[in-house]
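Supplementary notes for students who missed Thursday's class. We covered one full example, reproduced here. Read the sequence, then the structure, then the short commentary at the end.
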Amino acid sequence: MSRGDIPRRALLGGAGALVAPCNARAQGKGPDGWPNGRSVSLVIPFTPGGGTDVVARILQEGFGESFGGNFVMEHKPGATATVGARHVARARPDGGTLLVGSNSALSQAPFAYRNLGYDPLADFTHVSLLYASAYLLVAHPRWGSFAQVIEAAKREPNKLSYGTWGVGSTAHMLMLDLCERTGVELLHVPFGGPAPALTEILAGRVDMMFTTFAPARGHVLDGRLAALGAPHEQRLAAVPKVPTMGELGLPEFLVSAWWCLAGPAGLPPPLAAALEQAVRDAIARPQAQRLAENFGLLPLPLGPQAMRARITRDLALNEVLMRKAGITPE
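Structure (token representation):
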């Protein structure tokens, strides 16, 4: 396990549990007996160890109870989460392949890649939004404060580096916004996910990054990473000493990041409806609520209508942001 991975004991109390399929007590309780004894892939479009693993685990356990069968977490990282999203968009709409997706693939990547390979609205069955993501600006502990980082960056442009999980990702857009607001120039180092980027920060080879809270949580609480700020309106309950970006002199500096569940376009309506209800049941479980609180998962409106509305809204907003940042599709 790399140092950027989420501590598995914190999630489940046992080694290897993050990737173990969830075996329910009964089989085939979905429409027409779905999943009919098959394993269902919960595709995660990031490297292991990120916040999406926590979200997928909540679904994995809840779906096992709702439907029976095996729900297996399958990591397909790459190209700002588009590799995994494309895999699901092209899968058979039989319920065997589902996407635990995010805004990175569905509302940001369309402006970063010329040949995306899917349409975020037309090529998926939208089941539900899941959670919003808490974020932190973290750095190697040699950086003791946000002010120290900005001072050093102004003194030596493009010497300090920051990690992301790809061009046009939430982490990238946040840092571009930070650079514009503070007048600094930083070196962008993209990775396949938050965990490998955090590993490089822990080793001192990369200076900082905006990351979802889950993979950084243990490192921050143990002092291996310095948490410099949070792009939220209020301080996070799990790390109450970390100031908001507004408190650091950057008002209105806020993140808009979320997770969702989707299937390929054409998923049978009875199955889509059953999955929506199973999402509600999974999120309502006491264990899920504890995990959400511990790992900075924030509640969102559930259901397909809310999901489509959020994607549509964010596509319009991100088109403006990408153009302003000078990012053209690759």
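Commentary. The two ends are 33 Å apart (CA to CA). The chain has eleven helices and eleven strands. If anything here is unclear, bring it to office hours.
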